[in-house]
Write a structure and sequence with these properties.
Keywords: ATP-binding, Carbohydrate metabolism, Glycogen biosynthesis, Glycogen metabolism, Nucleotide-binding, Nucleotidyltransferase, Transferase. It contains ten helices and 29 strands. The chain is α/β, with parallel strands linked by helices. Helix 2 links the parallel strand 4 and strand 5.
Length: 421
């Protein structure tokens, strides 16, 4: 590796590479991930989930980015090629899409998150980054990784793990850090039944956000050691981090120390929109007068592939047939024709026809809503054509027969479900 060691007074991000693990399916989103990986799922009208991790990296000053893809990667790769191809090698920038391509052995997909980095060591080495910031591609949050890099260097840690304070019994689904008073991780438990509490905070546990900072050379040593360890899952959370907790120095980094909050954001925002309910709720939350997530903050923009679209348009103005949207987000190229929309989110290119009603609907791009349809508490997948007069949200038993209905009454509607009607 060419060690151009870090120059004093320069941002550490300049010597870092962000490596986004975007291979996951996200099976708890059910049919939404039948055609796309979870990081490629649409969010907030214009973006996809992975845009948050990538925007954080760019906004933090990181100019080398790799994205490892695996499951149903086509729409994700297409999105990355269209929206994230502005990084230029002549400015010491790089953007690599790294599908599992049997580069190390003939029959091997990425076995785990650590293997997804291990198989690309030669590519990373060619850039010579001093630090690696390992990111999950499927969470929604805003964070300045520079501050985490600084803590990593100041503490002399072998690995720094970003952590989120959660109510102790909600931490059962996470990897949980047991820390001492200095923030050093003394134990790491994956999905514990009885999560360890924080020092002085008996009701709070520290959950791992799946964000890790390493010195590159140490990381490569660890990946090579792990690759030779029989029975390893080749996974950061299950293998690499626990080994360093026991045999090295692992330090927790508090999300609240580096979370980006505009003046409108009351508290640190992080969401794993990994279930249909959580996905619906996080999108609908954006319609609040002061949403928990501020997408309008110019100082920390969320970049994405942005299609050139005509403006949204509202037509007809007769009682009972008035094109209107209240407390809603409406993206470009939408035509709301004689229909009423309340507390909903319309992605690019949606068409709604006369006498239709939407209430708390999350509508993905290029959906057509037929005349007289009445839809409440729904998530409608991309390109679905809702038939005239369809009613969803009134009859739970009928809804559950036709669509994927969650316990809290959100219905996911996809094309195959409509075709079966």
């Amino acid at each position: 590796m060419d060690h151009h060691h870090h120059r004093k007074g320069q941002p550490l991000a300049r010597d870092a590479m962000a490596y986004v693990l975007a291979g996951g399916r996200g099976s708890r989103l059910h049919e939404m991930t039948d055609t796309r990986a979870k990081p490629a799922v649409y969010f907030g009208g214009k973006s996809r989930i992975i845009d948050f991790a990538l925007s954080n990296a760019i906004n933090s000053g990181i100019r080398r980015i790799g994205v490892a893809t695996q499951y149903k990667a086509h729409s994700l790769i297409r999105h990355l090629q269209r929206g994230w191809n502005f990084l230029r090698p002549e400015r010491n920038e790089s953007f690599d899409i790294l599908p599992a391509s049997q580069r190390v052995s003939e029959f091997q997909w990425y076995e785990g998150t650590a293997d997804a980095v291990f198989q690309n060591i030669d590519i990373i080495e060619s850039y010579g980054p001093e630090f690696m910031v390992i990111l999950a591609g499927d969470h929604i949050y805003k964070m300045d990784y520079e501050l985490m890099l600084q803590q990593h260097c100041d503490s002399g840690a072998d690995v720094t793990v970003a952590c989120l304070e959660v109510p102790r019994m909600e931490a059962v689904g996470f990897g949980v850090m047991h820390v001492d008073e200095t923030g050093r991780i003394i134990d790491f438990v994956e999905k514990p039944a009885d999560p360890p509490a924080m020092p002085g905070k008996p009701d709070i546990a520290l959950a791992s956000m799946g964000i890790y900072v390493f010195n590159t050379s140490l990381l490569f040593d660890q990946l090579r050691r792990d690759a030779e360890t029989p029975g390893s899952n080749r996974d950061f959370g299950k293998d690499i981090v626990p080994w360093l907790v026991k045999n090295g120095k692992a330090v927790a980094h508090q999300f609240t120390d580096s979370c980006i909050r505009s003046s409108n954001e009351a508290s640190a925002y992080w969401r794993d929109v990994g279930t249909v309910d959580a996905y619906w709720e996080a999108n609908i939350d954006l319609t609040d007068v002061v949403p928990a997530l501020d997408l309008y903050d110019r100082t920390w923009p969320i970049s994405t592939f942005s299609e050139l679209t005509p403006p949204a348009k509202f037509v007809h103005d007769i009682d009972g047939r008035r094109g209107s949207a209240v407390a809603s987000l409406v993206s470009g190229d939408c035509i709301v024709s004689g229909s009423s929309i309340y507390r909903s989110l319309l992605s690019t290119g949606v068409r709604t026809h006369s006498f239709a009603m939407l209430d708390e609907a999350v509508v993905l791009p290029f959906v057509k809503i037929g005349r007289g349809a009445r839809l409440r508490k729904v998530v409608i997948d991309r390109g679905v054509e809702i038939p005239d007069g369809l009613v969803v949200g009134d009859d739970p038993i009928l809804d559950a027969k036709r669509f994927r209905r969650t316990d809290s009454g959100v219905c996911l509607i996809t094309n195959p479900m409509i075709d079966r009607l």
